[in-house]
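Q: Please design a sequence for this.
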């Protein structure tokens, strides 16, 4: 079916809001200047409630308007937070000194239908640099709370998201977003994506209704809007699922929203249960939203959050305090009992083991320490974090004995073991809500994990020599101690790797840091899981010796002299001595706790300066480092421990982190083929296959699939290009007709898709360039793919140079140049580098046409047609950009360009003469060139623009310039009062001009940098 254009999509969506969601349509507002608070509508609604006097209403609106007003230098986060506080909690107004303050609520949160929901289209808003016109704006009681940008289905939703992000910049209409709670973008092919103010593009989320199957033939955008913008749902999201977290405003993910909604239903029925949301899907914030709702809706409720590890306890405290929630973290068992026994704090977090004096299950009941007259205050609700670990034995019974009436909700990010599942469900109740790994990957909440096993096993090189050594050392020894020594040798052989094996693994890891894209660029880092503290220390020493300095060991070990007493035997250092000396050297006088804190901070914030953490047990749960991309495992692990460890690398980060990589030196998933198909063998056999579906993917198989897909995408994309498919045909296809001034812009989306597809190909190829045969390609296929990648790369460079796009789209390929140099070594992939610094026109202006030709890709420079079209496109791009600055001058330049293009196409001009005339035109068009063909005194760009628009009247142009410079105020553009002052001065000097002529001059003045 034909693709609907944006106008058709917008008309349909407006009808949906009017007819199905029952919003009031405010009309098309493109011809009016609009604000984010419609005073009249808000005043009418407040009056209709019957709760407030006219005087109170006037004061409330004035107070709210003051909170929402901002200039272009104000930070949006702070203003938006102040507005949100007014919306959610109301505004206190004291009408007179003798009357108590009254809280004025701008929204009726309890009864959605009591509010006025409305929508307007093409809402024109004055901007600092230019006016902007959001497609749709959602108002509630006259307050703009949502903005929606729509795109046709062939244009990605990303374009709408970027439009919203642009509008929030100080150059455009940032003040309009001070009241905004929901920032939306959508099209008919991808549906609705949602975020809030200042949400980066990568964190926008696609809406997905829980339990709803979207079927073929259903318009996904309409379905999403009906679900998301339903009145009670919209208010619920704004009221209960917005957080201001340490400078970042956050909205709930769909799994968090529906998880909390399900938990609310259970709470109302006074039922407990388990919320299972996979690692990395935001479990801590789910707890925050649920706890806030419970405490706000049940005045008797108190929430106790229990974890089983200190770092998780600290994390819970940090998360709640980060969103301005008061939480008391207990310091000891008695402190916990004291808190439960009084009603000072409604929100408490503690370690589970503080319930008793022992962390051993069999001792818990005996150690349970109830204070005298212990009587827990309030209705206790207990959140158990990672409930699969701490609640399997007597711990749960101890807790129930202490707090028999408590309602218990378990949270876990890990699937339950088959052996524990029934017991756990019996203790906690049913699953309240589940969000499994494969769902999170599909939604883009976490990354897929790519798995590969590497064999660096150790073996005895000369068994006979070992036997001889053993016999010599045990000569004359009784059989019993000899047997004990032999057993000890066998244990050491299993536990302690040889130095050679550790060196081989270290070399392997260092090689990855020199070849794998994210590691090589310093944008990603890694964790190495070692078998023991001793081995971790040996690893550290080996890395240091090899010059790999940006690494550290993080374990529970704290070196002290008492641990190495009586270790000296005269025959060499023991393992204790070795790890003591290495650890002490690494700490360099710092306390272990301070060292760990500093190292973790650097690992998270400066991946290039802390590339590798060597751990044993620590940091394998509750440690989030988005930059962490690789996990190297050199330790026997199973089930929960393995699951949680590998999920350290599934956190999303910058765009170039597409997967988390698991490198297994212990071959934990020995039967990889079977493990990938059903996940119930070897190291993960404790889980039901459905519960860990989609967890691991064979790295090389996935890499091959991505590379094949990238090649197929580019083949399909370029298939319409006519033969012989040389650079001329590519330029015609991606740039269009150079005689049409709009052609370059009309084909921009097509070029964007091409650039991104080439970047995807380069990334896919770079990931396995050195392993093509291992991935399943024949040598001939590998050579062909390398050649195709080089050719597409060169074509991409050529199209970018020809279109002038070389300064755009940087976010799509920040690290691609180094990859190309490393894997492709193609001259053509590097020659364009000069254009990253200056424009083609600048090159011509500075060094002439021949100098510029040498800076272009060979495919363009050697083809007269391609060279000509490249020059024409670049000149056209500058003319289009500069036209608002001086429409008279650049319209003349546009005519000169068109004449030159027609002459070339009709072969009415020699190629060399064409190049010389184009060089001359470049000097005239280049914004940096000095123009000398103006009267004396008309010596700035602004004066020249006025001179041209005023029919070359130098006296009039200079007079107007002087007056504007005299009366203009700071930041006047976009401010109606200040703009009116400038317009009045123009009218005085151009007293004989019509209103239309005044408008033209006024618009030109607003575009001059010198008048800003």
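A: Design:
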């Amino acid at each position: 079916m034909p693709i609907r254009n944006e106008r058709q999509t917008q008309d349909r969506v407006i009808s949906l809001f009017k007819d199905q969601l029952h919003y009031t349509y405010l009309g098309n507002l493109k011809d009016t200047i609009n604000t984010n608070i419609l005073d009249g509508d808000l005043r009418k609604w407040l009056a209709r409630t019957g709760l407030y006097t006219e005087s109170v209403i006037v004061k409330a609106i004035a107070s709210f308007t003051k909170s929402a007003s901002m200039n272009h230098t104000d930070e949006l986060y702070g203003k938006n937070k102040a507005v949100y506080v007014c919306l959610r909690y109301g505004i206190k107004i004291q009408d007179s000194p003798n009357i108590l303050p009254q809280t004025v609520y701008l929204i009726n949160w309890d009864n959605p239908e009591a509010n006025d929901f409305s929508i307007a289209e093409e809402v024109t808003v004055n901007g600092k640099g230019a006016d902007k016109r959001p497609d749709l704006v959602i108002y509630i009681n006259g307050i703009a709370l949502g903005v929606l940008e729509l795109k046709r289905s062939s244009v990605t939703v990303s374009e709408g998201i970027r439009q919203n992000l642009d509008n929030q910049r100080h150059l455009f209409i940032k003040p309009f977003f001070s009241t905004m709670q929901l920032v939306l973008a959508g099209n008919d092919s991808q549906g609705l994506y949602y975020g809030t103010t200042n949400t980066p593009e990568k964190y926008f989320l696609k809406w997905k209704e829980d339990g709803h199957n979207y079927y073929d033939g259903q318009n996904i955008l309409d379905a999403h809007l009906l679900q998301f913008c339903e009145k009670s749902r919209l208010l619920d999201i704004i009221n209960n699922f917005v957080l201001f977290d340490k400078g970042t405003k956050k909205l709930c993910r769909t799994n968090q929203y529906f998880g909390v909604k399900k938990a609310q239903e259970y709470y109302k029925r006074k039922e407990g249960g388990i919320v299972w949301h996979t690692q990395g899907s935001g479990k801590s914030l789910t707890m925050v939203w649920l706890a806030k709702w419970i405490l706000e809706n049940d005045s008797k409720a108190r929430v106790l959050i229990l974890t089983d590890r200190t770092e998780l306890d600290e994390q819970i405290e940090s998360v709640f305090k980060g969103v301005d929630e008061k939480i008391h973290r207990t310091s000891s068992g008695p402190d916990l009992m004291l808190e439960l026994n009084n009603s000072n704090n409604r929100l408490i977090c503690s370690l589970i083991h503080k319930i008793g004096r022992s962390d051993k299950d069999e001792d818990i009941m005996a150690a349970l320490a109830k204070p005298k007259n212990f009587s827990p205050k309030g209705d206790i609700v207990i959140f158990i974090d990672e409930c699969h670990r701490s609640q399997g034995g007597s711990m749960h019974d101890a807790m129930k004995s202490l707090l028999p009436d408590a309602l218990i909700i378990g949270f876990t990010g890990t699937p339950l073991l088959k052996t524990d599942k029934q017991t756990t469900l019996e203790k906690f109740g049913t699953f309240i809500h589940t969000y499994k790994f494969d769902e999170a990957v599909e939604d883009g909440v976490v990354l897929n994990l790519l798995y590969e096993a590497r064999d660096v096993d150790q073996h005895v090189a000369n068994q006979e020599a070992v036997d001889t050594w053993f016999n010599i050392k045990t000569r004359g020894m009784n059989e019993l101690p000899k047997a004990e020594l032999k057993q000890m040798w066998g244990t050491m052989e299993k536990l302690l790797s040889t130095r050679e094996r550790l060196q081989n693994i270290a070399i392997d890891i260092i090689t990855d840091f020199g070849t794998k894209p994210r590691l090589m660029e310093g944008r990603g880092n890694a964790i190495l899981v070692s078998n023991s503290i001793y081995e971790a220390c040996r690893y550290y020493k080996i890395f240091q010796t090899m010059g790999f300095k940006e690494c550290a060991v993080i374990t529970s070990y704290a070196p002290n002299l008492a641990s190495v007493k009586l270790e000296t035997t005269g025959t060499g250092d023991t393992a204790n001595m070795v790890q003591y000396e290495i650890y002490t050297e690494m700490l360099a006088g710092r306390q272990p706790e301070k060292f760990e804190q500093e190292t973790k901070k650097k690992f998270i914030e400066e991946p290039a300066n802390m590339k590798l953490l060597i751990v044993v047990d620590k940091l394998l749960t509750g440690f989030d480092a988005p930059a962490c991309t690789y996990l190297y495992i050199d330790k026997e692990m199973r089930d929960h421990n393995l699951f949680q460890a590998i999920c350290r690398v599934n956190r999303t980060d910058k765009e170039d982190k597409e997967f988390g990589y698991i490198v297994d030196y212990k071959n934990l998933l020995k039967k990889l083929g079977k493990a990938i198909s059903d996940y119930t063998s070897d190291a993960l056999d404790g889980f039901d296959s459905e519960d860990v579906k989609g967890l691991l993917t064979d790295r090389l198989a996935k890499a091959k699939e991505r590379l094949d897909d990238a090649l197929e995408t580019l083949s399909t994309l370029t298939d319409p290009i006519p033969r012989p498919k040389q650079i001329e045909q590519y330029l015609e296809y991606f740039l269009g007709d150079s005689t049409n001034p709009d052609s370059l812009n009309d084909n921009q989306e097509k070029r964007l898709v091409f650039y991104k597809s080439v970047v995807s190909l380069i990334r896919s190829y770079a990931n396995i360039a050195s392993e093509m045969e291992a991935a399943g390609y024949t040598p001939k296929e590998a050579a062909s793919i390398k050649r195709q990648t080089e050719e597409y790369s060169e074509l991409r460079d050529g199209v970018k140079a020809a279109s002038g796009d070389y300064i755009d789209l940087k976010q799509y390929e920040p690290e691609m140049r180094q990859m190309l140099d490393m894997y492709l070594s193609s001259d053509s992939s590097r020659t364009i580098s000069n254009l990253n610094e200056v424009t083609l026109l600048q090159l011509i202006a500075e060094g002439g046409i021949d100098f510029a030709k040498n800076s272009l890709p060979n495919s363009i420079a050697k083809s007269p047609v391609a060279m000509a079209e490249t020059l024409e496109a670049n000149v056209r791009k500058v003319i289009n950009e500069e036209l608002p600055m001086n429409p008279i001058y650049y319209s003349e330049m546009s005519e000169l360009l068109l004449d030159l293009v027609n002459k070339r196409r009709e072969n009415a001009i020699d190629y060399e003469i064409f190049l010389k005339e184009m060089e001359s035109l470049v000097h005239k068009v280049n914004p940096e060139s000095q123009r000398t063909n103006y009267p004396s005194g008309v010596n700035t760009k602004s004066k020249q623009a006025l001179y041209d628009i005023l029919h070359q009247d130098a006296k009039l142009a200079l007079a107007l310039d002087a007056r504007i410079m005299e009366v203009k105020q700071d930041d006047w553009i976009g401010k109606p009062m200040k703009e009116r002052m400038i317009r009045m001065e123009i009218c005085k000097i151009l007293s004989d001009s019509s209103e239309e002529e005044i408008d033209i001059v006024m618009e030109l003045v607003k575009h001059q940098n010198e008048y800003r």
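Q: Thanks. Anything notable?
A: The chain has 41 helices and 25 strands. Residues 779-803 form the longest helix (25 residues).
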